[in-house]
Sequence to fold (314 residues):
Amino acid sequence: MSNTKQCSAKYSGIGGQAVMEGVMMRNMEKFAVAVRRPNGEIAVVKDEYKGVGPKAVYKMPFIRGVFSFVDSLVLGMKTLNLSSDFYMEDENGAKEEKTAGDSVMSGVIMAVAMMLAIGLFMVLPYFASLLFKKWITEPHLLALVEGVIRMALFVCYILAISKMEDIKRVFMYHGAEHKCINCIETGHDLTVENVRAASREHRRCGTSFLLYVMVISILLFAVIQVSNPLMKVVLRIVLIPVIAGISFEFIRLAGTSNNRFVRMLSVPGLMMQKLTTAEPDDKMIEVGIASVEAIYDWRKYLEENFPDRQAEAI
Fold:
């Protein structure tokens, strides 16, 4: 199999994320977490997640993006906890039982993390941009400076965490997740060899989503101008759902369209993924494959979407 190209991909409907020593894959309401345990075995758990909102809101443009963003946070925390449980089991399968207090603590941690993220990436750049007010008096230009600072903080944050050993392995599993999806979406059997040759960049990636959140926030705050400093801070918080909704629609379009213009707009996100993904080893690829096969019939998908392809030996 030659290296796959994004433009030849056909939407499969599956997505996922990297977790601690593993991969989570989701297909509609079903999801699976596969983890490589310390003893070398691959542990897989399957479950369902129906989302925080009623089904009707997931059909509403822009509104569905807000709920999908919340879903990704909730399911992300849940699957990270699951992967941690699997990985921390000893070789006899024993593990510490979770208590109600543990669940509350996980919720508190997620809430604190969200507040820190909002403060770091949405509020701090505004105050930092005020340092340039002496030289830049035009509000729209000052908003652009704020956006540049926000983007720089985001990139520096990614670069900083990428130096941590544990995060490096997470980024490798992130690469395995993308490669597995790209493998089948370009019409190839899900084998280690084929996955290894697939691209590790994908247009529906959460990294691209976050990048476009930054870009859209720059444009939005440059257009929406208020004079009251407190209102400016409030707007940067209350407009997060609006920004998330717009960003989601673009990522959704990018993941299902092969339009040349859409592909061109996707390039910055794909470039950013070079920082948040890394080439996985074959054992990581095996984990990714196990996660896909637990919730998705990729053979049926290939038969329906690539009827003229030649069957590959597995």
